[in-house]
From TrEMBL:
Chief localisation class: membrane
GO molecular function: transmembrane transporter activity
Subcellular location: Membrane
Organism (species): Massariosphaeria phaeospora
Residues annotated as transmembrane: 44-68, 80-104, 125-149, 169-189, 201-219, 242-263, 284-305, 331-358, 379-399, 405-429, 449-471, 483-502
Pfam families: AA_permease_2
Record bears the keyword Membrane: yes
Membrane topology reported for the UniProt record: Multi-pass membrane protein
UniProt KW keywords: Membrane, Transmembrane, Transmembrane helix, Transport
Gene3D superfamilies assigned: Amino acid/polyamine transporter I (1.20.1740.10)
Lineage: Eukaryota, Fungi, Dikarya, Ascomycota, Pezizomycotina
Protein name from the UniProt record: Amino acid/polyamine transporter I
Top-rank lineage group of the source organism: Eukaryota
GO cellular component: membrane
Length: 520
Protein backbone atom coordinates (compact mmCIF):
# COMPACT_ATOMS: atom_id res chain seq x y z
CA UNK A 1 0.00 0.00 0.00
CA UNK A 2 1.06 3.65 -0.37
CA UNK A 3 1.88 5.02 3.09
CA UNK A 4 0.89 8.53 3.91
CA UNK A 5 3.54 11.00 4.96
CA UNK A 6 2.48 10.88 8.59
CA UNK A 7 3.46 7.21 8.92
CA UNK A 8 6.59 7.49 6.77
CA UNK A 9 8.06 10.16 9.03
CA UNK A 10 7.65 8.11 12.19
CA UNK A 11 8.05 4.44 11.26
CA UNK A 12 10.48 2.32 9.32
CA UNK A 13 9.53 1.68 5.74
CA UNK A 14 8.77 -2.00 6.29
CA UNK A 15 6.41 -1.23 9.18
CA UNK A 16 3.67 0.49 7.19
CA UNK A 17 1.73 -2.55 6.13
CA UNK A 18 2.10 -4.14 9.56
CA UNK A 19 0.80 -1.06 11.41
CA UNK A 20 -2.18 -0.93 9.07
CA UNK A 21 -2.73 -4.64 9.64
CA UNK A 22 -2.67 -4.10 13.39
CA UNK A 23 -5.25 -1.34 12.98
CA UNK A 24 -7.51 -3.85 11.27
CA UNK A 25 -6.94 -6.31 14.11
CA UNK A 26 -7.86 -3.61 16.60
CA UNK A 27 -11.06 -2.89 14.70
CA UNK A 28 -11.95 -6.58 14.88
CA UNK A 29 -11.36 -6.45 18.63
CA UNK A 30 -13.70 -3.46 18.86
CA UNK A 31 -16.40 -5.43 17.04
CA UNK A 32 -15.98 -8.33 19.46
CA UNK A 33 -16.22 -5.98 22.43
CA UNK A 34 -19.35 -4.49 20.94
CA UNK A 35 -21.03 -7.87 21.11
CA UNK A 36 -19.72 -8.61 24.61
CA UNK A 37 -19.99 -5.27 26.40
CA UNK A 38 -23.00 -3.56 24.97
CA UNK A 39 -21.42 -1.34 22.33
CA UNK A 40 -18.25 0.21 20.91
CA UNK A 41 -16.99 3.61 19.88
CA UNK A 42 -16.31 4.93 16.38
CA UNK A 43 -12.84 5.91 15.15
CA UNK A 44 -13.23 9.51 13.99
CA UNK A 45 -10.25 11.45 15.45
CA UNK A 46 -7.52 12.20 12.88
CA UNK A 47 -3.94 13.40 13.40
CA UNK A 48 -4.73 17.11 13.67
CA UNK A 49 -7.62 16.49 16.06
CA UNK A 50 -5.52 14.15 18.20
CA UNK A 51 -2.80 16.79 18.63
CA UNK A 52 -5.37 19.54 19.22
CA UNK A 53 -7.08 17.36 21.81
CA UNK A 54 -4.02 17.18 24.09
CA UNK A 55 -2.80 20.67 23.20
CA UNK A 56 -5.96 22.46 24.30
CA UNK A 57 -6.72 19.98 27.12
CA UNK A 58 -3.60 21.08 29.01
CA UNK A 59 -3.97 24.86 28.36
CA UNK A 60 -0.91 25.28 30.54
CA UNK A 61 -0.18 29.00 30.34
CA UNK A 62 -3.81 29.83 31.09
CA UNK A 63 -3.87 27.53 34.12
CA UNK A 64 -0.60 29.00 35.40
CA UNK A 65 -2.07 32.49 34.94
CA UNK A 66 -4.93 31.86 37.36
CA UNK A 67 -2.99 29.77 39.90
CA UNK A 68 0.28 31.65 40.28
CA UNK A 69 -0.92 33.07 43.61
CA UNK A 70 0.35 29.79 45.12
CA UNK A 71 3.89 30.59 43.98
CA UNK A 72 3.70 34.26 44.95
CA UNK A 73 3.27 33.15 48.55
CA UNK A 74 5.64 30.18 48.37
CA UNK A 75 8.90 30.45 46.51
CA UNK A 76 7.99 33.57 44.56
CA UNK A 77 9.60 34.29 41.18
CA UNK A 78 12.39 31.74 41.74
CA UNK A 79 9.81 28.98 42.13
CA UNK A 80 7.99 30.08 38.97
CA UNK A 81 11.02 30.58 36.69
CA UNK A 82 13.18 27.63 37.66
CA UNK A 83 10.18 25.51 38.54
CA UNK A 84 8.81 25.97 35.01
CA UNK A 85 12.04 24.67 33.51
CA UNK A 86 12.23 21.81 36.01
CA UNK A 87 8.59 20.77 35.56
CA UNK A 88 8.78 20.88 31.76
CA UNK A 89 11.84 18.63 31.64
CA UNK A 90 10.35 16.26 34.23
CA UNK A 91 6.97 16.08 32.52
CA UNK A 92 8.59 15.39 29.14
CA UNK A 93 10.40 12.43 30.73
CA UNK A 94 7.10 11.12 32.10
CA UNK A 95 5.25 11.72 28.81
CA UNK A 96 7.94 9.95 26.76
CA UNK A 97 7.83 6.97 29.14
CA UNK A 98 4.05 6.68 28.81
CA UNK A 99 4.18 7.35 25.06
CA UNK A 100 6.36 4.28 24.63
CA UNK A 101 3.66 2.16 26.29
CA UNK A 102 0.97 3.92 24.27
CA UNK A 103 2.81 2.86 21.13
CA UNK A 104 2.70 -0.76 22.28
CA UNK A 105 -0.90 -0.75 23.42
CA UNK A 106 -2.91 2.43 22.72
CA UNK A 107 -5.90 1.65 24.84
CA UNK A 108 -8.61 3.59 26.61
CA UNK A 109 -7.68 1.90 29.89
CA UNK A 110 -4.05 3.03 29.52
CA UNK A 111 -2.41 3.09 32.96
CA UNK A 112 -4.44 0.31 34.57
CA UNK A 113 -4.11 -1.96 31.54
CA UNK A 114 -0.34 -1.41 31.44
CA UNK A 115 0.01 -2.03 35.16
CA UNK A 116 -1.87 -5.30 34.79
CA UNK A 117 0.31 -6.23 31.82
CA UNK A 118 3.76 -5.38 33.19
CA UNK A 119 3.40 -5.98 36.95
CA UNK A 120 5.86 -8.74 37.92
CA UNK A 121 3.16 -10.46 40.02
CA UNK A 122 -0.34 -9.87 41.41
CA UNK A 123 -1.41 -8.51 38.03
CA UNK A 124 -5.12 -8.43 38.80
CA UNK A 125 -4.53 -6.63 42.09
CA UNK A 126 -2.32 -3.92 40.61
CA UNK A 127 -4.62 -3.56 37.60
CA UNK A 128 -7.66 -2.94 39.80
CA UNK A 129 -5.84 -0.60 42.17
CA UNK A 130 -4.38 1.35 39.25
CA UNK A 131 -7.81 1.55 37.65
CA UNK A 132 -9.38 3.11 40.74
CA UNK A 133 -6.53 5.59 41.13
CA UNK A 134 -6.57 6.58 37.44
CA UNK A 135 -10.34 6.97 37.21
CA UNK A 136 -10.40 9.04 40.39
CA UNK A 137 -7.43 11.12 39.20
CA UNK A 138 -9.26 12.01 36.02
CA UNK A 139 -12.50 12.79 37.81
CA UNK A 140 -10.52 15.21 39.97
CA UNK A 141 -8.83 16.63 36.87
CA UNK A 142 -12.26 17.12 35.37
CA UNK A 143 -13.33 19.00 38.51
CA UNK A 144 -10.45 21.45 38.21
CA UNK A 145 -11.79 22.94 34.96
CA UNK A 146 -15.08 24.24 36.38
CA UNK A 147 -13.12 25.31 39.48
CA UNK A 148 -10.82 27.42 37.31
CA UNK A 149 -13.73 28.93 35.37
CA UNK A 150 -15.71 29.70 38.53
CA UNK A 151 -12.62 31.28 40.07
CA UNK A 152 -12.26 33.52 37.01
CA UNK A 153 -15.95 34.47 37.09
CA UNK A 154 -15.82 35.25 40.81
CA UNK A 155 -12.64 37.30 40.39
CA UNK A 156 -14.12 39.34 37.56
CA UNK A 157 -17.32 40.03 39.51
CA UNK A 158 -15.27 41.32 42.45
CA UNK A 159 -13.12 43.37 40.08
CA UNK A 160 -16.12 45.04 38.41
CA UNK A 161 -18.38 45.20 41.48
CA UNK A 162 -16.20 45.78 44.58
CA UNK A 163 -19.21 45.66 46.90
CA UNK A 164 -19.91 42.04 45.97
CA UNK A 165 -19.13 39.61 48.82
CA UNK A 166 -18.57 36.12 47.38
CA UNK A 167 -20.10 33.16 49.18
CA UNK A 168 -18.59 29.69 48.89
CA UNK A 169 -21.90 28.21 47.75
CA UNK A 170 -21.93 30.69 44.85
CA UNK A 171 -18.84 28.96 43.45
CA UNK A 172 -20.46 25.55 43.84
CA UNK A 173 -23.51 26.67 41.86
CA UNK A 174 -21.31 28.10 39.10
CA UNK A 175 -19.38 24.82 38.91
CA UNK A 176 -22.63 22.89 38.58
CA UNK A 177 -23.83 25.17 35.79
CA UNK A 178 -20.55 24.89 33.88
CA UNK A 179 -20.63 21.08 34.09
CA UNK A 180 -23.85 20.96 32.07
CA UNK A 181 -22.21 22.22 28.85
CA UNK A 182 -19.72 19.40 28.17
CA UNK A 183 -22.15 16.81 29.50
CA UNK A 184 -24.74 17.53 26.81
CA UNK A 185 -22.25 18.47 24.11
CA UNK A 186 -20.44 15.13 24.34
CA UNK A 187 -23.38 13.19 22.96
CA UNK A 188 -25.70 15.70 21.30
CA UNK A 189 -23.08 17.84 19.58
CA UNK A 190 -20.19 15.41 19.14
CA UNK A 191 -19.60 16.45 15.54
CA UNK A 192 -18.81 20.02 16.60
CA UNK A 193 -16.13 18.91 19.08
CA UNK A 194 -13.38 18.64 16.44
CA UNK A 195 -14.03 22.16 15.07
CA UNK A 196 -14.34 23.41 18.66
CA UNK A 197 -10.94 21.92 19.49
CA UNK A 198 -9.47 23.69 16.44
CA UNK A 199 -10.97 27.00 17.60
CA UNK A 200 -9.66 26.37 21.09
CA UNK A 201 -6.16 25.62 19.79
CA UNK A 202 -6.18 28.83 17.74
CA UNK A 203 -7.32 30.87 20.76
CA UNK A 204 -4.72 29.08 22.89
CA UNK A 205 -1.94 30.34 20.61
CA UNK A 206 -3.33 33.71 19.48
CA UNK A 207 -4.17 35.01 22.95
CA UNK A 208 -0.84 33.75 24.22
CA UNK A 209 0.91 35.96 21.66
CA UNK A 210 -1.45 38.91 22.19
CA UNK A 211 -1.12 38.71 25.98
CA UNK A 212 2.67 38.68 25.87
CA UNK A 213 2.86 41.57 23.40
CA UNK A 214 0.37 43.63 25.42
CA UNK A 215 2.23 43.15 28.68
CA UNK A 216 5.64 43.81 27.16
CA UNK A 217 4.51 47.00 25.42
CA UNK A 218 2.36 48.52 28.17
CA UNK A 219 3.50 47.25 31.56
CA UNK A 220 6.19 48.61 33.85
CA UNK A 221 9.33 46.48 33.98
CA UNK A 222 10.49 44.47 36.96
CA UNK A 223 14.21 44.10 37.48
CA UNK A 224 16.08 40.98 36.41
CA UNK A 225 17.18 40.60 40.01
CA UNK A 226 13.54 40.37 41.16
CA UNK A 227 12.64 37.81 38.48
CA UNK A 228 15.63 35.49 38.76
CA UNK A 229 16.83 35.78 42.38
CA UNK A 230 13.79 36.48 44.56
CA UNK A 231 12.91 33.48 46.71
CA UNK A 232 9.84 34.21 48.88
CA UNK A 233 9.75 32.23 52.13
CA UNK A 234 8.32 34.58 54.74
CA UNK A 235 4.70 35.09 53.65
CA UNK A 236 2.80 31.80 53.94
CA UNK A 237 4.19 30.62 57.26
CA UNK A 238 6.66 28.25 55.61
CA UNK A 239 10.04 29.71 56.62
CA UNK A 240 12.33 27.11 55.09
CA UNK A 241 13.37 28.35 51.60
CA UNK A 242 13.55 24.85 50.11
CA UNK A 243 10.10 23.95 51.45
CA UNK A 244 8.61 27.20 50.12
CA UNK A 245 10.15 26.57 46.69
CA UNK A 246 8.81 23.02 46.59
CA UNK A 247 5.28 23.98 47.62
CA UNK A 248 5.29 26.80 45.07
CA UNK A 249 5.80 24.24 42.30
CA UNK A 250 2.04 23.63 42.30
CA UNK A 251 1.59 26.62 39.96
CA UNK A 252 3.86 25.21 37.26
CA UNK A 253 3.39 21.47 37.81
CA UNK A 254 -0.40 21.28 37.76
CA UNK A 255 -0.89 22.86 34.28
CA UNK A 256 1.35 20.25 32.62
CA UNK A 257 -0.58 17.23 33.90
CA UNK A 258 -3.33 15.63 31.85
CA UNK A 259 -1.29 15.03 28.70
CA UNK A 260 -2.52 11.42 28.84
CA UNK A 261 -6.07 12.57 28.13
CA UNK A 262 -5.82 11.58 24.47
CA UNK A 263 -4.86 8.06 25.59
CA UNK A 264 -8.36 7.55 26.92
CA UNK A 265 -9.74 8.44 23.49
CA UNK A 266 -7.56 5.81 21.77
CA UNK A 267 -10.45 3.70 20.49
CA UNK A 268 -11.64 6.77 18.57
CA UNK A 269 -8.23 7.80 17.15
CA UNK A 270 -7.19 6.63 13.71
CA UNK A 271 -3.67 5.10 13.56
CA UNK A 272 -3.56 5.37 17.35
CA UNK A 273 -0.19 3.61 17.76
CA UNK A 274 1.55 6.47 15.99
CA UNK A 275 -0.67 9.46 16.61
CA UNK A 276 -1.39 9.07 20.33
CA UNK A 277 2.31 9.03 21.39
CA UNK A 278 3.04 11.95 19.06
CA UNK A 279 0.11 13.93 20.48
CA UNK A 280 1.25 13.40 24.07
CA UNK A 281 4.86 14.44 23.53
CA UNK A 282 4.03 17.37 21.26
CA UNK A 283 1.48 18.72 23.72
CA UNK A 284 3.85 18.63 26.70
CA UNK A 285 6.73 20.27 24.82
CA UNK A 286 4.60 23.07 23.34
CA UNK A 287 2.66 23.76 26.52
CA UNK A 288 5.79 23.68 28.64
CA UNK A 289 7.53 26.25 26.42
CA UNK A 290 4.44 28.47 26.32
CA UNK A 291 3.97 28.29 30.08
CA UNK A 292 7.60 29.28 30.73
CA UNK A 293 7.48 32.18 28.26
CA UNK A 294 4.17 33.50 29.61
CA UNK A 295 5.13 33.30 33.30
CA UNK A 296 8.49 34.93 32.59
CA UNK A 297 6.63 37.78 30.89
CA UNK A 298 4.19 38.10 33.81
CA UNK A 299 7.06 38.35 36.30
CA UNK A 300 8.83 41.05 34.28
CA UNK A 301 5.51 42.94 33.93
CA UNK A 302 3.92 42.23 37.31
CA UNK A 303 3.86 45.87 38.49
CA UNK A 304 2.96 46.45 42.15
CA UNK A 305 3.60 43.03 43.71
CA UNK A 306 1.68 43.81 46.91
CA UNK A 307 -1.39 44.88 44.96
CA UNK A 308 -1.22 41.79 42.76
CA UNK A 309 -0.76 39.45 45.73
CA UNK A 310 -3.75 40.88 47.59
CA UNK A 311 -6.20 40.32 44.71
CA UNK A 312 -8.41 37.18 44.81
CA UNK A 313 -7.32 36.56 41.20
CA UNK A 314 -3.87 38.16 40.84
CA UNK A 315 -3.70 38.00 37.04
CA UNK A 316 -6.51 40.58 36.92
CA UNK A 317 -4.30 43.21 38.55
CA UNK A 318 -1.38 42.31 36.24
CA UNK A 319 -3.50 43.08 33.17
CA UNK A 320 -5.20 46.09 34.75
CA UNK A 321 -1.95 47.76 35.78
CA UNK A 322 -0.60 47.22 32.28
CA UNK A 323 -3.65 48.33 30.24
CA UNK A 324 -5.23 50.82 32.69
CA UNK A 325 -8.53 49.66 31.18
CA UNK A 326 -11.25 47.59 32.82
CA UNK A 327 -12.68 46.62 29.44
CA UNK A 328 -9.34 45.32 28.18
CA UNK A 329 -8.71 43.50 31.45
CA UNK A 330 -12.13 41.87 31.29
CA UNK A 331 -11.46 40.73 27.72
CA UNK A 332 -8.11 39.13 28.54
CA UNK A 333 -9.42 37.34 31.61
CA UNK A 334 -12.68 36.24 29.94
CA UNK A 335 -10.61 34.60 27.21
CA UNK A 336 -8.93 32.49 29.88
CA UNK A 337 -12.36 31.25 30.98
CA UNK A 338 -13.37 30.49 27.38
CA UNK A 339 -10.25 28.38 26.80
CA UNK A 340 -10.78 26.54 30.10
CA UNK A 341 -14.34 25.78 29.02
CA UNK A 342 -13.24 24.37 25.66
CA UNK A 343 -10.61 22.30 27.46
CA UNK A 344 -13.34 21.05 29.77
CA UNK A 345 -15.11 19.42 26.81
CA UNK A 346 -11.98 17.35 26.12
CA UNK A 347 -11.38 16.45 29.75
CA UNK A 348 -14.99 15.37 30.20
CA UNK A 349 -14.87 13.20 27.08
CA UNK A 350 -11.59 11.61 28.18
CA UNK A 351 -12.65 10.69 31.71
CA UNK A 352 -16.00 9.30 30.56
CA UNK A 353 -14.21 6.94 28.14
CA UNK A 354 -11.84 5.88 30.92
CA UNK A 355 -14.73 5.06 33.26
CA UNK A 356 -16.42 3.18 30.41
CA UNK A 357 -13.29 1.13 29.69
CA UNK A 358 -12.75 0.29 33.37
CA UNK A 359 -16.37 -0.83 33.59
CA UNK A 360 -15.90 -2.91 30.46
CA UNK A 361 -13.22 -4.84 32.38
CA UNK A 362 -15.52 -5.13 35.41
CA UNK A 363 -13.41 -2.73 37.45
CA UNK A 364 -16.31 -0.67 38.83
CA UNK A 365 -19.30 -1.90 40.81
CA UNK A 366 -22.35 -2.15 38.51
CA UNK A 367 -19.94 -2.40 35.58
CA UNK A 368 -22.52 -3.84 33.21
CA UNK A 369 -24.52 -0.61 33.49
CA UNK A 370 -21.59 1.79 33.03
CA UNK A 371 -20.03 -0.25 30.20
CA UNK A 372 -22.98 0.25 27.87
CA UNK A 373 -22.61 2.37 24.74
CA UNK A 374 -25.77 4.08 23.54
CA UNK A 375 -26.45 2.70 20.03
CA UNK A 376 -27.97 5.99 18.84
CA UNK A 377 -25.29 8.41 20.02
CA UNK A 378 -22.33 5.96 19.94
CA UNK A 379 -21.47 7.33 23.38
CA UNK A 380 -21.07 5.79 26.87
CA UNK A 381 -23.91 7.91 28.22
CA UNK A 382 -24.16 6.03 31.52
CA UNK A 383 -20.46 6.70 32.13
CA UNK A 384 -21.04 10.35 31.24
CA UNK A 385 -23.80 10.54 33.84
CA UNK A 386 -21.53 8.93 36.43
CA UNK A 387 -18.81 11.52 35.84
CA UNK A 388 -21.27 14.41 35.90
CA UNK A 389 -22.67 13.21 39.22
CA UNK A 390 -19.19 12.84 40.72
CA UNK A 391 -18.29 16.37 39.63
CA UNK A 392 -21.37 17.82 41.26
CA UNK A 393 -20.60 15.98 44.51
CA UNK A 394 -16.95 17.09 44.55
CA UNK A 395 -18.06 20.68 43.97
CA UNK A 396 -19.65 20.54 47.43
CA UNK A 397 -16.12 20.65 48.91
CA UNK A 398 -16.19 24.36 48.15
CA UNK A 399 -19.00 24.91 50.66
CA UNK A 400 -17.06 23.30 53.50
CA UNK A 401 -13.59 24.76 52.92
CA UNK A 402 -12.32 28.27 52.32
CA UNK A 403 -9.29 26.86 50.48
CA UNK A 404 -11.19 24.38 48.34
CA UNK A 405 -9.67 25.85 45.17
CA UNK A 406 -6.29 24.62 46.44
CA UNK A 407 -7.73 21.10 46.74
CA UNK A 408 -9.23 21.25 43.24
CA UNK A 409 -5.75 22.06 41.86
CA UNK A 410 -3.43 19.93 44.01
CA UNK A 411 -5.73 16.89 44.12
CA UNK A 412 -5.77 16.16 40.36
CA UNK A 413 -2.03 16.82 40.06
CA UNK A 414 -1.25 14.46 42.95
CA UNK A 415 -3.62 11.73 41.77
CA UNK A 416 -2.44 11.89 38.15
CA UNK A 417 1.23 11.66 39.10
CA UNK A 418 0.50 8.61 41.25
CA UNK A 419 -1.30 7.07 38.27
CA UNK A 420 1.73 7.73 36.07
CA UNK A 421 4.21 6.19 38.51
CA UNK A 422 3.21 2.54 38.65
CA UNK A 423 3.09 1.71 34.91
CA UNK A 424 6.53 3.31 34.48
CA UNK A 425 7.85 1.39 37.50
CA UNK A 426 6.55 -1.94 36.20
CA UNK A 427 7.90 -1.32 32.70
CA UNK A 428 11.29 -0.40 34.20
CA UNK A 429 11.35 -3.65 36.22
CA UNK A 430 10.37 -5.64 33.14
CA UNK A 431 13.04 -3.84 31.14
CA UNK A 432 15.91 -4.69 33.46
CA UNK A 433 14.66 -8.18 34.33
CA UNK A 434 16.53 -11.08 32.78
CA UNK A 435 14.11 -13.77 33.90
CA UNK A 436 10.87 -12.87 32.13
CA UNK A 437 10.02 -15.51 29.52
CA UNK A 438 8.41 -13.12 26.99
CA UNK A 439 10.00 -10.12 25.26
CA UNK A 440 8.40 -6.69 25.58
CA UNK A 441 6.02 -6.15 22.60
CA UNK A 442 7.52 -2.83 21.45
CA UNK A 443 5.52 -0.47 19.27
CA UNK A 444 6.61 1.95 16.52
CA UNK A 445 7.94 4.39 19.16
CA UNK A 446 10.75 2.91 21.24
CA UNK A 447 13.37 4.52 23.50
CA UNK A 448 15.88 1.72 23.03
CA UNK A 449 18.99 1.84 25.22
CA UNK A 450 17.87 5.16 26.75
CA UNK A 451 14.66 3.60 28.04
CA UNK A 452 15.82 2.55 31.54
CA UNK A 453 17.49 5.93 32.11
CA UNK A 454 14.42 7.87 30.99
CA UNK A 455 12.09 5.68 33.06
CA UNK A 456 14.25 6.04 36.18
CA UNK A 457 14.53 9.82 35.78
CA UNK A 458 10.75 10.07 35.28
CA UNK A 459 10.09 8.11 38.47
CA UNK A 460 12.51 10.28 40.47
CA UNK A 461 10.71 13.39 39.21
CA UNK A 462 7.30 11.97 40.13
CA UNK A 463 8.41 11.04 43.65
CA UNK A 464 9.86 14.52 44.19
CA UNK A 465 6.62 16.19 43.07
CA UNK A 466 4.41 13.86 45.12
CA UNK A 467 6.27 14.90 48.27
CA UNK A 468 5.18 18.56 47.95
CA UNK A 469 1.68 18.43 46.45
CA UNK A 470 -0.23 17.26 49.58
CA UNK A 471 1.25 19.93 51.86
CA UNK A 472 -0.87 22.96 52.86
CA UNK A 473 0.08 26.24 51.22
CA UNK A 474 -0.34 28.27 54.42
CA UNK A 475 0.59 27.72 58.05
CA UNK A 476 -0.75 27.26 60.67
CA UNK A 477 -3.26 24.70 59.46
CA UNK A 478 -6.85 24.43 60.65
CA UNK A 479 -9.96 22.70 59.39
CA UNK A 480 -10.70 25.39 56.81
CA UNK A 481 -7.17 25.88 55.45
CA UNK A 482 -6.24 22.20 55.34
CA UNK A 483 -5.07 20.76 52.00
CA UNK A 484 -7.37 17.76 51.70
CA UNK A 485 -5.61 16.27 48.65
CA UNK A 486 -3.56 13.76 50.66
CA UNK A 487 -6.38 12.47 52.90
CA UNK A 488 -8.76 12.15 49.93
CA UNK A 489 -6.22 10.16 47.92
CA UNK A 490 -5.62 7.98 50.96
CA UNK A 491 -9.36 7.37 51.28
CA UNK A 492 -9.60 6.36 47.62
CA UNK A 493 -6.74 3.86 48.01
CA UNK A 494 -8.36 2.40 51.13
CA UNK A 495 -11.66 2.19 49.26
CA UNK A 496 -9.97 0.37 46.38
CA UNK A 497 -8.40 -2.10 48.82
CA UNK A 498 -11.80 -2.66 50.39
CA UNK A 499 -13.32 -3.23 46.96
CA UNK A 500 -10.60 -5.79 46.19
CA UNK A 501 -11.31 -7.67 49.40
CA UNK A 502 -15.11 -7.66 49.01
CA UNK A 503 -15.68 -8.42 45.33
CA UNK A 504 -13.01 -6.87 43.13
CA UNK A 505 -10.70 -9.89 43.14
CA UNK A 506 -13.55 -11.99 41.73
CA UNK A 507 -15.14 -9.35 39.51
CA UNK A 508 -12.18 -7.64 37.83
CA UNK A 509 -10.89 -9.15 34.59
CA UNK A 510 -7.19 -8.74 33.84
CA UNK A 511 -7.08 -6.78 30.57
CA UNK A 512 -5.23 -8.56 27.78
CA UNK A 513 -2.94 -6.28 25.81
CA UNK A 514 -3.60 -5.98 22.11
CA UNK A 515 -0.58 -7.73 20.67
CA UNK A 516 0.83 -6.31 17.49
CA UNK A 517 2.99 -7.88 14.78
CA UNK A 518 6.70 -7.95 15.47
CA UNK A 519 8.06 -4.78 13.92
CA UNK A 520 11.68 -5.57 14.70
Amino acid sequence: MVADKDIELTTRANEVDEVAAQEAIDDERVKAEKEQAGGALDRYINLVSAINFSFILQCSWEAAAVTFQFSLSNGGPASIVYGSIFSTIGTVLVAVSLAEMASMDPTVGAQYRWSATFAPKWNRFFGLMQGWITVFAWICSCTSNPALVSNVISGLVIFNYPDYVPQRWHITLIMWAITLFPFFANFWFRKVLNPLEAVGAICHVVFFIVSIITLIVLAERSTAEYVFTTLTHDVSGWTNPAASWGIGLLTVVYPLTGFDGVLHMSDEVKKARIRVPRSMITSVVLNGVMQFAYMLTVLFCIGDVDLVSSDPLPIIQVYYQATKSKAATNLFVVMLAIIFTISFFNVFASVSRLAWAFSRDNGLPFSAFFAKVNPRFKMPINALMLIGTCLCLLALINIGSSTAFNAFISLPALALYISYFFPILFLFIRRVSRSHPEPIPWGPFQLGALGPIVNLAAMCYIIFIIIWLPLPTFLPVDGLSMNYAGPIIGAVILGALLDWCISGRKRFQVPIARHRPDLG
